[in-house]
Amino acid sequence: MRQLTNYINGQRIAPQSGAYLDNVNPATGDVFAQVPDSGAADIESAVTAAAQAFPDWSKTPAHERSRIMLRMADILESRLDEFARAETDDNGKPLSLARTVDIPRAVKNLRFFATAILHTQSESHVTDGQALNYTLRSPRGICGLISPWNLPLYLFTWKIAPAIATGNVAVAKPSEVTPVTADMLADVAIEAGLPPGVLNIVHGLGAKAGAAIVSHPKITTISFTGGTVTGRAIAAVAAPMFKKLSLELGGKNPTIVFADADMKNALPMSVRAAFANQGQICLCGSRLFVERTICEQFTKDFVDTTKQLRVGDPLNESSNMGALVSKPQFEKVAQYVELAKEEGGQILCGGSPPAQLNDRCKNGYFFQPTVIAGLNHTCRVNQEEIFGPVVSIIPFDDENHAVEMANATPYGLSASIWTESLHRAHRVADAVQCGTIWINTWLLRDLRVPFGGMKQSGVGREGGDEAIRFFTEPKNVCVATGNN
Ligand code: NDP
What we know:
Layout: E1 2-3, E2 6-8, E3 11-13, E4 20-25, E5 30-36, H1 40-59, H2 62-78, H3 80-91, H4 95-116, E6 124-127, E7 131-139, E8 142-146, H5 152-165, E9 169-173, H6 180-192, E10 199-201, H7 206-215, E11 219-225, H8 228-238, E12 244-248, E13 253-257, H9 263-275, E14 285-291, H10 292-307, H11 327-342, E15 346-349, E16 370-373, E17 390-396, H12 399-407, E18 411-412, E19 414-418, H13 422-431, E20 436-439, E21 454-455, E22 458-459, H14 464-470, E23 472-480
Parallel strand pairs: 1-5, 8-9, 8-11, 9-10, 11-12, 13-14, 13-19, 14-17, 16-17, 19-20
Antiparallel strand pairs: 2-3, 4-5, 6-7, 7-23, 12-22, 15-16, 18-21
The protein binds NADPH dihydro-nicotinamide-adenine-dinucleotide phosphate.
NADPH dihydro-nicotinamide-adenine-dinucleotide phosphate (NDP) is lined by residues 146-150, 155, 173, 175-177, 205-207, 210-211, 214, 225-227, 230, 233-234, 248-251, 282, 385, 387, 413, 453, 457-458.
């Protein structure tokens, strides 16, 4: 069985407690790895290593930091199949998805920020002939990076890459539910020649290892992606310590389909938006608003298309959907389906685990893609984040009605709007309160754009210049150029 280690000061080391947690393959239900159950003492070692590495790394020229990170990207890319298989075993997602989305995106994250730092600009402002102001940006020091289980290496590297590219050092914790590719990343860092202490990876539970990162006084910057409830708890600890905080939290994203939409794209894409990665993407469209005049036909076509999705062994190339990430996640999804029934919803398809699975997967946490109709947009199923393969279809009368319902949740992460009317597309994009709006597409990402949520979906933005700004501290220097 695979035994993971922490990666501290360039070394693979066991947790100080000597304790390990079981890591389960969700497609089989079998324990396949042991994860360090780290605590405050391990975080302390990681902080010490990071603090020692910071003076040199922060002064290492950008082109050298870039060279090492590009080497990490190349090594990762050369091991794509190995990483994809580990991600699938750890997370339950289809191998085809890990191979085409998760691991390639992790490579892109490293390359994007390794090269972005070679092209940054600095600002200067001339004050009426009296002074020249220029802005220095310095790395902030030790950054605490905490990521979730749904896109394990993709989101882990989305934080690590901008943090270390800009000259910071990091103490990073992957989700204890999906730690394996983060563990493998340590080998990539060692082979690429990343100096010891620049990146420290500490495994363990959120409430223990994660909480020790958040409360550590020397970690002044926290970038967290995860649930809104956890984000609130982290903010409560970090805010009184005046830490710089980025929170990427949950979503309850609307997909809005107008009667004039191009159905050959709107239909398959809204199915994909609902069920990609078993519905476990923060950007999944779990509330599907459809214009009333087409709702009956659209619902029928949506259900027919959903029924064609194959749920099964994630190693099988023909599976469109794999297993949910864990038993608790499986139970949560099943409970929400029961709640939907209590709330008066009709289950149009799915609603239970698939009837037939191969022998390898008979104890796995699989759930069929589930389509619900007949629920009010204010009920719990349409307000709370389920984070699973469950979508609720809700008819709307006109544009204002669609916008009103789309905005009527505490979340504001993303939305996709389907219409052939240019004017309406722009109007609705402006009116919907979400950090990302897709028009006639979904999940098309340009890493340069600001990424993040409004309302309870988060605080701050990641991506491109936003990330570089987040991980650096601006300082204004005002030089008198004339008489004061
Ligand atoms: P959690 O909030 O449970 O956990 C996220 C990470 O935080 C994990 O590493 C977890 O460790 C850790 N953690 C938990 N409690 C604490 C704590 N008190 N202090 C510090 N760290 C802690 O989220 P999930 O892993 O369940 O991920 C799913 C959630 O992530 C969904 O709500 C989803 O919407 C959101 N998400 C948001 C995205 C965005 O960009 N906005 C992108 C992807 C997901 P452990 O696993 O050990 O508990």
